[in-house]
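Entry: Apolipoprotein M
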Amino acid sequence: MAASHVPQKLQLRATIRMKNGHCVPREWTYHLTEGSTDLKTEGRPDMKTELFSSSCPDGIMLRETGQGYQRFLLYNRSPQPPEECVNEFQSLTFSLNSKAFLQTPREIGEKLRYQQRGVDSSKG
């Protein structure tokens, strides 16, 4: 019997900090097809999303490209993913020519950390 090519759903949630400083919860639904690393984002036909393999058991890595932008995302079930996972993600994004790394706050009141390759803005 042939393998099924019925798409499966993957729902991811995050809280996004807006330019005005407010945090807004967001949810994305991705449709997966067996045998492919490309995902379709529900409601965003212009967006291409690619899934990358990861050694982190509780995380996934994505690259999203749309009209005029590209971003890499690391989703993890833990608010503080293991350092090896973050390092693996940074290595992947660096090899794909990403120039900056942004780690969003995980708790209310936690300072936003922004790192340029080799430069930590908190040491200003």
